Amino acid sequence: MKSTPTLKQLAGVVVSAVTLLGAAPAMADTISFEAHGPDIFAGGDTFAEAGYTMQVLDTVAGNGGGFAGAIANGADPTTCTVAACPVGNNSMYYLGLNDGGLNIHRTDASAFSLHGLDYAFLAPIGGLHNFSYGQLMLTGTAVGGGTVRATFDFPLQNGAGNYVFGGAPLNAAFGQTKLSGLNISACMFDNSGNCYNPADNQAQFAIDNLNVSAVPEPSAYAMLMLGLGGVAFAARRRARQAGQSAPTLPAQA
Amino acid sequence: MKLHPISSAVLVLLSAMAGAAVADDVRHSYIVQLVDKPAATYTGQVTGLAATMPAAGQRLNVDAADVQNYLNYLDTKQESVLNTISAAEITHKYNVVFNGFAAMLTDDEVRALKKNSGVAKISADNIHQLDTSYTPTFLGLDKAGGLWDQVGGKGAAGENMIIGILDGGIWPENPSYADRVDENGNPSHTGATRVYDAPPASWHGSCDTGEGFGVQNCNNKLIGARYFKSPSKSLHWTEFDSARDSVAGPEGQGGHGSHTSSTAGGNANVTAVVGGVPMGKVSGMAPRARIAAYKICWTDGATGKNGCSNGDGVAGIEQAVRDGVNVLNYSIGPGAGGGSFDDPIEVAFLGAASAGVFVSASAGNSGPTSTTPAPVSHISPWLTTVGNSTHNRSYIATVTLGSGAKVDGASSNAMTPSAPMILAKDAGLAGVDPANPSLLRCFGGTDGVPALLDPAKVTGKVLVCDRGANVLVNKSANAKTAGAVGVIIANVPGGATTILNQPHSLSTIHIVKEDGAIVKSYAAASGAAATAALGDLRAVFDPNVPAPVMNGSSSRGPNVANANILKPDVTAPGTDILAAVTADLTHAQRDAVAAGGVAPVTDWAFYTGTSMASPHVAGVAALLKQRHPDWTPAAIKSALMTTAYDTKSDGLNGSVFWDATAKTTGTLPWGQGAGHIAPTPAADPGLVYDATEIDYARFLCGLNAGVYSAATCQAIGTVQPYNLNLASLTAANVLGSLTMTRKVTNVGSTTATYTAQANLPGYTVDVQPAVLTLAAGAKGSFTVKLTRTNAPIDTWVYGSLVWSDGTHTVRSPLTARGSALAAPGRVSSEAATGSKILTVGTGFAGTLGSVKGGLIPATIDSRTIGQADVSADTNSLCAAGGAPGVNVHTVVIPSGALVARFSTFDADTTGHGLSDLDLVVLKDGAVVGSSGGSSANEQVQLIKPAAGTYSVCVVGYAPVDGQANYSLNSWVVTPATVGGNFKALMPSAATVGGTASVGLSWSGLALGKRHLGAVQYLLNGSYQGTTMVEVNTNDPLPQFDSARDKYVNAK
C-alpha cells in the first residue's frame, strides 16, 4: 500500500487530538447502509439512516437527474459487470457513480461531525495496473460558514488484483468541526498530477461505515479550533505518489 | 464476477436461498477447473517452483525436472479438492494443459464445489459432435516449387512431424497408415519394404490395446493410438472399446476419425475405392507425417448417438501434448451458441498452444443454408478455425438403360445394379391422379404430406422423379421409403437447369432435361420391361466451375464470444472430400474384428463439412512447421492468413441472427475469414503477426474471462481485444475513432522495406509508421487509427490492410463497426434483491435514454410430447399447426416488446437430461428462430420482435422412451410487464470515446424462479442496443448445452 505512510502520519495526529478532546458530548452513530437494501439512485434521490439524510448528487456535467449512486451488496459477486467492484466488504456499501457525489446532513438539520469512513475505488473495468487513479474528496460545510476539505488517495489493490477498502480517519480533519452538511465525491488524476471532476464518468467511489456523531449543543468551540489546525495539516499532506497518475482509463470495447 | 472471492461471497447468497434449489440425485458429468495454472502456461508464481511454460516456438517437455516438480505440486493441491468427492466418480484428472478434473457429480456436490476456494470454475461436460484425393493439387502443394518441393518433395512432406487427431478413432488397416510399400511403391501393410524409420526420439506416445486393436495395429506411420472414455459409458454394438474407429453403415456412426486423419497425414499413392469403383490415388496434405489417434468420440449404447464429451476431449488434448505431437486436429463442435473462451476445451487448447502445438479446429456446419444456423465455433484466438469451401472437381455417374443407352448425371453415390425402372407417374397409390404434379415430383412423408408412391409398384425398382418444388434429397428419401433401390432425378422443361450433387440417402443420379427425355421415352417404349443401372461413379475436373466458393453450411461469424476477434480464420477444401473411412460391417463381422480374428476391409467415402476442411489446415501446418521449425503456432496461423486469397461469390446476402448488420456472404470475413489457404506462399509470408501465451493471457484478463486469476492479471496487465496481435484487424465498436496496435516480425532472410496500404469504406485509416524497414528477424510496431467519416453507425464495413515490399504481400482483413454505445448483451444474477453496475462504452456526447421491461417470471405451459418424425420438415409441420411430436404453443407479442424468449430445460423435462427436444419459432409461416441441441436445454430469443402471433413449436426429436413431459418457459418483456421493482438508470452526461455506468436494481423477487428483464438504450429516441437481465433465484447449476449436428451429410 503505497499511501500507507501518509495515512499513518494522519493517524498519529488523530490520536493526539482524541486525547485532547477527552469526554466530548457526542452521540456516535455509524451509517452502514445496512438499513437500505441494494438499490440505485438518480441525482436528487434521497434516503435516510440513523437520523441522517443522504441526497444523491448528479455530475455537474449532467442534467441533475442521471444515474449517480447505488447501494451494493458486497456479498453478491454479480453486482459489477465489466465494472470492477471493490472487495473485502461483504456488507452493504454505497457507490458514487458517473462523477456524482453524495450530500449528507442531519434529517433534523442539527449539526454533526464526521470521524472516519471506509472507502475504495470503483474501477470502470477490471484488470487495471495497480495504481491509485484518483482521490476521494470530502467537503464539509461548517456551521456558521466556511468549509473543510480533505482528500485521500484511493487504496491500491490486494494481492489478488482487486481494489479494496481502506480506512480514512477523519478525527483530525473533521471530527472537531461542527458540520451542517457534507459532500463526498471523487476526482481522477491527470498527467500533471491534478485531480479533476467531472472526469468522463470515471470518478467513482465506494464508501461504508461513516462514523458520525450528532453535536447537540454548541459547547466546545474552543476545542474545535484544535481540530481545524489538524485539517490544515492534513490538506498539506495529501496522499499521492508521483508517477502513478493516469489521465483517463481506457474505454471498454 | 471474478473480482470477488467467489467462495465467501456466494456462501452468503446461497445460505439465504436454502430450499429454493431443486436437487437431482442423478449424477452428471462436470469439468472442475482449479485455481493454479497448468504446466503448459505456468510462469513461476509459486515460490520454489520454476516456470514450466516452454519458450516461444518450443514444445513442452514433460520429462524435464521443473515440469515434473510442478506437476507433483498440482497433484498435491488437487487432492484437497478431490478428497471432498468420491474417488469412484472421478473420470479424468488434468494438469498439463488444464488444471482440474472431470467427475460424475450430484447437484448437491456441484453446489458444494461452487463454494470451495480451490475451485475456479465448474463447467457442464457438454457433448460435442464430429462436425481428398484431389485437394493437394487444388492447394498447389504438388506443383513445381510448391510446398512439397520445398520440404524435399512428396516423399519428405511432413517428415518427422507428428499430427495428433482428436476424433472417433482410426481404421488402422487402411493403407493410408501403412509404414511399408509394395513392389510397385504403393503403401501396403504387407509390403516388403518398410519406408518409415522409428518415430522421432521426442515421441512419448504409445499404442494402447483394446477391443479389436493390438500393438500390431500401430507401426512407424501410425505411431500412437489411445482412447479416452468415462468408465460408466455404455457403447453401441458398432463401437470398439479401443482406438479403433467404429463401424459405418445404416446403424453405425464411424468413419469420421479415419477421414480426418488420412486427409491431414495419410500416405500418398493410396488407391481409393468407393462402392467398388476405383477413384484414383489419394494423399494426405502431409503424406510423410506420423499420425497419432486420440479417440474421444463414442457412439452411445443407449441412444445410438455419437458424441465427444469435453471431459474426454481435455484428457485427449492433455495426453497428446504429453506425448509430443506437433499439430492437433479437432474436427468437433459446435460449441453451443458459438462457445466461450473459458470453455474447458478452449482452455486446454490454450495450454496446447502454449506448449508449442498448432491446433486446427472446425468452424461448424451451422451456416446460413443449414436447418438451424448458429454462430461460428472455436472462437479462441490461439487456435486456427477453418471454414469449408469447394474445389473444382465434380463427380458424375452413368445411367445405363436396358436398351444400352447411357446418360451421365451428377452423383456421389450411384451404385444400383440393373433393376426394373418405373416412372413416378406410373407409381402412384390407388386413387392418386397420374398427372398430379406432386406424384411426378415424388412428394411424400419427408415433405409433410401423405405418401403418394405405392410401395407395391416401387419396391425393388429404380424410380424416375421430376425435379421441382421439393428438396432434392426428399425425393430420394420418399423413394427409399416406398422401397426403391435407385433414383433418377430428371430436370424438366422450364425448370432449373443445373444438376446437383446432393447427400441422397439412396443411390441417385441427377440428369439434365434432354437426358430426362431419353429416359422417359425409353420407359414409354419398354413399359414393364424397362430396366436401368446406376453406376460408374467418377471424378471430373471442370475448370469452368468457379472455386473455391464457401459452402452455405459453413458456420459464419461474427464471433459471439467477442466480436473483436475474427472467426473463422481461414477456409480450406471441405466439400466432397474423398478420404479413408470405416467399413459397413454386420454385427457378426464387427464381432469378428473385435475378437481380432480377421483383417477387416478398408473403405473410402466423400464427406462434406468443416470437419473435412480442418485437417487440410492441420496437414499444411505440419508442412510449415517442418519448413520453419522455430515458428510458433501463431506464426503459422499468421502465415496462412496473410497469404490467403478471396473465395468466389456464393450469392448469399442474408443477415446472421446474432448480429443483424453482419451478412452471410461467403466472400466476407464472416464466411472465409482471411481467405482460402495458399500453402506455398504461406511458407514465405514475409511478415508474421506473432503471439504467445502472455498475449492471450492479457487478452483474457482484459475481458475478465475467468481463465486467469485476478492476481495473475494484476501482474501481467491487460490488452484490449482489438489490440491482440492477430493477422486480422477487427473493431466491433468504433466510438468515433479507434487506434489499434500491431507488431510484425520479418521472417524473410534479408532486410526488407514494407509499405502499408489500407482501406475501409466510410473511414479514414491512418497507419503509423506507414513504412517499416526491418532486418531479418526484426520486429516492428505500428498503429492503425480508424476515424469514422460517413460509414453508417451500427453497420459492419469491410476493408484490408496490406504491407508490401514488392515481393511479399501481407494482407489482413480490416473490419469495423461504428457504434454510439458498447453495452453488455446480457447480465445475470442469482439474488432476489440486488443492484447492478455495468460499464458501457460511449461514442456520443449527451444524455443516454432507455426503456425497460421486467423482471418477470416465465409463463409456463407444461405439456407432454411424443416422438416426432425427424425425417420430416418439422418447420412445415409447425406451420401446419402441429403433428405428432410437434406441439404448437401460440404466443401473442404486442407492439413495443423489448424481447421474447422461449426456453425448455432438462431440469423441467422427464428423462434426466437424456430427452432431446428442439424449439422452432415461426411468424407468418417463416422461421424466426430455432434451437436444436442434443438435450432439452433449448432457447430461442428474439430481440425487438415484431408484433404478431407466433407459433412456438416444441419438437420431440428424441424423448426418452418416446414420450416426455416438459414445460415451455415463455417471457414476453414489454414496458408494461413489470415486476420486482425493477429500475434502470442511465448517466446524464457522456463523452465520445469514454465510459459510463448504467445502474439496475430489483427487490423481493420470488425464490426458485427464472426472471427476465431487458433494457433498451436510446439516443435521441433511436435504438442503440439491448442488455438482457436474467435473475435466476433457483441457485442454478452449470447448464449442459450439447450439440447434435454432425458433419454435413456425405454426398
Draw up the topology in text.
The complex is a heterodimer of chains A (253) and B (1051).
Chain A: H1 4-21, E1 27-31, E2 39-42, E3 46-49, E4 52-57, E5 67-73, E6 80-81, E7 92-96, E8 101-106, E9 111-121, E10 134-142, E11 147-153, E12 166-169, H2 171-175, E13 179-189, E14 195-196, E15 205-215, H3 221-236
Antiparallel strand pairs in A: 1-15, 2-5, 3-4, 4-8, 5-7, 7-15, 8-13, 9-12, 9-15, 10-11, 10-13, 13-14
Chain B: H1 6-16, E1 28-34, H2 65-82, E2 90-94, E3 100-105, H3 107-114, E4 119-124, E5 127-130, H4 135-138, H5 147-150, E6 162-167, E7 180-181, E8 193-194, E9 222-227, H6 256-265, E10 270-274, E11 277-282, E12 290-295, E13 297-299, E14 306-309, H7 310-323, E15 327-330, E16 332-333, H8 344-354, E17 358-362, E18 384-389, E19 393-401, E20 406-410, E21 416-423, H9 437-440, H10 455-458, E22 462-466, H11 472-481, E23 486-490, E24 508-511, H12 513-526, E25 531-541, E26 570-573, E27 577-581, H13 587-594, E28 603-607, H14 610-627, H15 633-642, E29 655-656, E30 659-663, H16 669-672, H17 679-682, E31 687-688, H18 693-702, H19 710-716, E32 729-734, E33 737-746, E34 752-759, E35 763-768, E36 771-774, E37 779-788, E38 796-804, E39 809-818, E40 821-822, E41 826-829, E42 834-842, E43 849-857, E44 859-866, H20 874-879, E45 886-893, E46 899-904, E47 916-923, E48 926-931, E49 938-943, E50 948-958, E51 963-973, E52 983-985, E53 994-1002, E54 1010-1019, E55 1022-1032
Parallel strand pairs in B: 6-12, 6-15, 9-12, 15-17, 17-18, 18-26, 21-22, 22-23, 23-24, 32-39, 41-55
Antiparallel strand pairs in B: 1-3, 1-4, 2-3, 5-14, 5-16, 7-8, 10-11, 13-14, 19-20, 19-25, 21-25, 27-28, 29-30, 31-33, 33-37, 34-36, 34-38, 35-37, 38-39, 40-42, 42-53, 43-54, 44-51, 45-50, 46-49, 46-51, 47-48, 47-50, 52-53, 54-55
Helix pairs in contact in B: 6-14, 7-8, 18-19
